[in-house]
Automatic annotation (TrEMBL):
HAMAP family referenced in this protein's UniProt entry, alphabetically: Aminopeptidase_M18_2
EC number(s) per entry: 3.4.11.-
Protein name from the UniProt record: Probable M18 family aminopeptidase 2
Cofactors required: Zn(2+)
Organism: Pseudomonas knackmussii (strain DSM 6978 / CCUG 54928 / LMG 23759 / B13)
Lineage: Bacteria, Pseudomonadati, Pseudomonadota, Gammaproteobacteria, Pseudomonadales
Binding site for Zn(2+): 82, 156, 401
Length: 429
């Protein structure tokens, strides 16, 4: 089972180079499992036992199955994750011609580690908006092939490189796509038009706009002498999206279950389709009773906010609190912060710990050092927007926000197992 899950994750990561593609990948799996797509612009007709999903901005998705047990009596079981990851995104007017090379200007999305982006085989993917026969349309594109690279400066020309040097995002991160002949110019929108034709058979009248990200073409892989690890891009947080999906699809139908995968977490979630926006509440209000009954359902519900946790790195163990160093392959991590950077309470932590023990899943704890700042997740944002009790958890990883992260190959099975048990749990605290 571990090998099948890990290979499924590897395939999911390969098919999901951007939040748009991740959402499309999730939607495909849901439809194959019998989930019906709903359009936010239409009137909804749902029924007990039904399975549905809805997307917003092509980059966020909420899937739900209405269980046989009424939500008013038994509440909802929600799992939340996010579809976006730190990356380099192409600017609106990106063309650069420098020293006979064609480059593209990029903007850093989220808190990316810059150095790992150098000397990687990069491709480009995302959403393109165009005009066709007088109408505005959009499609997803993915070049797939390695079409760009950001070469390092040789050590001979940067003798201080190994002493640490600040990377200037404006000057040092534009990827090289091609060499230019003397006097030659290239138009990025022409390139997008060619890709649109090659991938979709569409000859657009004009390329109007785009949201495109560079990504590493190297596939994720199981690594280590004993296959102990998974190395790959976008483990934060597509790993949790995938585990949540697997749990939703394999859990029973007694309880009402919700999977929430939203965009823009890496930049604060403040958007129409982010966790700090109205997407989840608007969706639930269309599914649940109104007024007093809606509040009663929410207060009987619980959210598991699943995002990655910092595993204790053997080379940097002093970056962790001595009593809170999560180990890769040691199971899910309950994340705690007294200043509400995580939304975990003793009640919700106790419930999740009990759930792990009942299902023979090892469980760990994380709290940041008292002299260091703490990151955050969609947990506190969703809790404050919806008023739902929340526990923040995640799988331990190394190199978070690198172009290639590392997680434990056993942990995915643990997370999928406990999330499936959560979706099936009879009683919530």
């Amino acid at each position: 089972m571990r090998a099948d899950l890990n290979q499924g994750l590897i395939d999911f990561l390969a098919a999901s180079p951007t939040p748009f593609h991740a959402t499309a990948s999730l939607a495909r799996r849901l439809e194959e499992a019998g989930y019906q797509r709903l359009d936010e612009r239409d009137a909804w007709r749902t029924e007990a036992g039904g399975r549905y999903y809805v997307t917003r901005n092509d980059s966020s998705l909420i899937a739900f199955k209405l269980g046989r047990n009424a939500p008013l009596e038994h509440g909802l079981r929600l799992v939340g994750a996010h579809t976006d990851s730190p990356c380099l995104r192409v600017k609106p007017n990106p063309e650069l011609a420098r020293q006979g090379y064609w480059q593209l200007g990029v903007e850093v999305y989220g808190g990316a580690l810059f150095a790992p982006w150098f000397d990687r085989d990069l491709s480009l993917a995302g959403r393109v908006t165009f005009r066709l026969a007088g109408k505005v349309e959009s499609r997803l594109i993915d070049f797939r092939a390695p079409i760009a690279v950001i070469p390092n400066l040789a050590i001979h020309l940067n003798r201080e490189a190994n002493q640490g040097w600040p990377i200037n995002a404006q000057n040092e991160l534009p990827p090289i796509l091609a060499q230019l002949a003397a006097g030659e110019t290239r138009d990025f929108r022409d390139l997008l038009g060619e890709q649109l034709q090659n991938e979709h058979g569409i000859i657009a009248d004009a390329i109007l706009d785009y949201e495109l990200s560079f990504y590493d073409t190297q596939r994720a892989a199981v690594v280590g002498l004993g296959g102990e690890f998974i190395a790959g891009a976008r483990l934060d947080n597509l790993l949790s999206c995938y585990a949540g999906l697997e749990a939703l699809l394999t859990s029973g139908d007694e309880q009402s279950a919700v999977l929430v995968c939203t965009d823009h977490e890496e930049v604060g979630s403040c958007s129409a389709c982010g966790a700090d926006g109205p997407f989840l509440e608007q969706t639930l209000r269309r599914l649940l009773p109104e007024g007093d009954a809606f509040v009663r359902v929410i207060q009987r519900s619980l959210l598991v906010s699943a995002d990655n946790a910092h595993g204790v790195h053997p080379n940097y163990a002093d970056k962790h609190d001595g009593n809170h160093g999560p180990q890769l392959n040691g199971g899910p991590v309950i994340k705690v912060n007294s200043n509400q950077r995580y939304a975990t309470s003793s009640e919700t932590a106790g419930f999740f710990r009990h759930l792990c023990l009942e299902n023979e899943v090892p469980v760990q704890s994380f709290v940041t050092r008292s002299d260091m700042g703490c990151g955050s997740t969609i947990g506190p944002l969703t809790a404050s927007q919806l008023g739902v009790r929340t526990v923040d958890i995640g799988l331990p990883t190394f190199a978070m926000h690198s172009i290639r992260e590392l997680a434990g190959s056993q942990d995915l099975r643990y997370l999928a197992k406990v999330l499936s048990a959560f979706y099936e749990s009879i009683e919530l605290p």
